[in-house]
Automatic annotation (TrEMBL):
One Pfam match: CCDC92
Keywords assigned by UniProt, alphabetized: Coiled coil
Organism encoding this protein: Psophia crepitans
Gene from which the chain derives: Ccdc92_1
Entry coiled-coil feature ranges: 65-99
Sequence ranges assigned to domain CCDC92/74 N-terminal in this UniProt record: 9-62
Stored PANTHER family: COILED-COIL DOMAIN CONTAINING 92B (PTHR14882:SF3), COILED-COIL DOMAIN-CONTAINING 74A (PTHR14882)
Listed name of the protein: CCD92 protein
């Protein structure tokens, strides 16, 4: 009976050591898991922040793009207006060149007649 009691005590001590070892291992595992959760939460926060910044930049770029598109439309309209004005000025210039040519011809004719009259 005494041997069995000693054997049982050794088994109990062995089980207690195993339980203490498992508790220690479990605590280390829980600690490591807690650290990993904190690391992942920090990483998630950083990614969320990066995403928010990228979304803000994208919205700002969209605003800039819309502003540039509007400026382009305004400038294209101004360009069309200037082209229209230039076309009108070219027509007017062509008309005036025709008048100048006619006046020169008329002046040459008058000059010839005047010279003929002088002879």
């Amino acid at each position: 009976v005494a041997m069995e009691t000693v054997s049982l005590e050794h088994q109990i001590q062995s089980v207690q050591r195993h339980i203490a070892f498992l508790k220690k291992e479990q605590m280390e595992l829980l600690h490591d898991l807690h650290l990993e959760i904190l690391r992942l939460q920090k990483h998630c926060s950083e990614l969320t922040h990066d995403l928010e910044i990228k979304e803000l930049e994208a919205r700002q770029q969209d605003v800039l793009d819309r502003e540039l598109e509007e400026k382009c439309r305004v400038m294209e309209a101004q360009l069309q207006e200037k082209e229209k004005d230039n076309l009108e000025l070219r027509k007017e210039l062509q008309h005036k060149e025709t008048l100048v040519a006619a006046l020169r011809s008329s002046l040459r004719n008058k000059e010839r007649r005047f010279l003929e009259e002088l002879k």
